[in-house]
Q: What sequence folds into this?
């Protein structure tokens, strides 16, 4: 099976489990080709979850599009946010870009299908946490 088909299979498995466990509603996400999944938090930022087969990582990214004020707000609450998420995050302001991101990567080998269940359970526990934590600051701007 080629990488593209394997990624498609992974994300289809993830969505099936997420919908069955009622962790995501069908209108809350959008599959981005085979590379990842996008989950809306608000109009100015969203979660983007992706797999990098070369680096063998799974990344949860809060992607802030065209609104540096959100990044500044979140960064001012960095310690509080990391405490609520339960780990250190990587903060990228991307000065020369309109976008910014806050992210965390964990080891994941998409070619090891036996690890898929653990990774899906990990994502299903992390996604609501990220949504709740970041949404709580949404109205501060």
A:
């Amino acid at each position: 099976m080629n990488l593209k088909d394997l990624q498609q299979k992974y994300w289809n498995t993830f969505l099936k489990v997420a919908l069955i466990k009622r962790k995501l509603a069908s209108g809350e996400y959008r599959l981005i080709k085979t590379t990842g999944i996008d989950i809306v938090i608000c109009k100015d930022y969203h979660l983007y979850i992706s797999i990098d087969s070369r680096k063998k990582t799974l990344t949860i990214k809060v992607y802030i599009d065209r609104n540096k004020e959100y990044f500044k707000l979140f960064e001012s609450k960095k310690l509080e946010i990391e405490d609520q998420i339960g780990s250190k995050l990587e903060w990228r302001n991307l000065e020369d870009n309109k976008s910014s991101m806050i992210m965390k990567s964990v080891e994941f080998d998409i070619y090891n299908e036996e690890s898929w269940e653990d990774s899906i359970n990990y994502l299903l526990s992390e996604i609501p946490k990220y949504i709740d934590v970041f949404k709580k600051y949404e109205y501060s701007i």
The first strand starts at residue 29 and ends at 32. Residues 53 and 110 are 6 Å apart (CA to CA). Helices lie at 3-20, 68-76, 78-85, 116-135. Strands lie at 29-32, 36-42, 45-52, 57-64, 90-92, 100-107.
